[in-house]
C-alpha cells in the first residue's frame, strides 16, 4: 500500500471541537480545536495541530499513551500531581508521559503541534 507524505501546510483536515469534561474543569470553559493531520495505519500514532482558549483542567494520561508537543503560539503550563510546574511558549516542546496525572493550563490562547503514541492500541 502506497502511503503519501503528510504536509501540514497543504492539508486542511476538518477540525473537531470539544471542551474539558466538567468533572475535570478547574478554570474557564475553554473551546479546544483539533486538526488531526495523520493517523498511522495501525492506529497507534496520530499527529496534528491543537488549539485552545485560556482555561485549566485536570489531566490523567492512560498507561501506554504518550504525547510530544511543540508550542506554535501562546503559552501553557503543565503541573504534575506533586505541583511541579513547567511553562511552555513558542518554539518550546515537551512530552507528557503515559500514566501522568496533573493539571493542564492554557495561560494565553495556544496553538501546538502534537504527536500521540498509544501503545495500548498497538497491543490490541
Describe this entry's structure for a reader.
The protein has one helix at 119-123, and strands at residues 16-18, 25-27, 32-39, 45-52, 55-60, 65-80, 85-88, 93-96, 101-118. With 124 residues, the protein is mostly beta strands. The protein has one domain (16-123): Sandwich (Jelly Rolls), CATH 2.60.120. Strand 6 and strand 7 (85-88) form a beta hairpin. The longest helix is centred in the C-terminal third of the chain and has 5 residues, at 119-123. The radius of gyration is 15 Å and the shape is globular.
Summarize the structure.
This protein has 124 residues and is mostly beta strands.
CATH class: Mainly Beta
- Amount of helix: under 10%
Weakly predicted, low-confidence segments: none
Taking the alpha carbons of the first and last residues, their distance comes to 22 Å
Features:
single chain, mainly beta, nine-stranded antiparallel sheet, globular, 124 residues, Jelly Rolls
Element layout with pairings:
Layout: E1 16-18, E2 25-27, E3 32-39, E4 45-52, E5 55-60, E6 65-80, E7 85-88, E8 93-96, E9 101-118, H1 119-123
Antiparallel strand pairs: 1-3, 2-5, 3-4, 4-9, 5-9, 6-7, 6-8, 6-9
Amino acid at each position: 500500500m502506497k502511503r503519501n507524505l503528510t504536509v501540514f501546510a497543504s492539508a486542511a483536515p476538518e477540525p473537531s471541537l470539544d471542551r474539558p469534561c466538567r468533572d475535570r474543569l478547574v478554570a474557564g470553559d475553554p473551546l479546544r480545536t483539533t486538526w488531526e493531520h495523520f493517523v498511522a495505519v495501525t492506529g497507534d500514532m496520530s499527529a496534528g495541530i491543537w488549539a485552545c482558549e485560556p482555561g485549566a483542567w485536570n489531566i490523567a494520561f492512560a498507561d501506554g499513551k504518550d504525547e510530544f508537543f511543540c508550542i506554535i503560539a501562546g503559552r501553557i503550563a503543565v503541573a504534575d500531581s506533586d505541583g511541579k510546574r513547567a511553562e511552555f511558549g513558542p518554539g518550546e516542546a515537551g512530552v507528557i508521559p503515559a500514566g501522568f496525572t496533573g493539571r493542564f493550563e492554557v495561560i494565553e490562547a495556544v496553538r501546538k503541534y502534537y504527536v500521540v503514541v498509544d501503545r495500548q492500541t498497538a497491543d490490541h
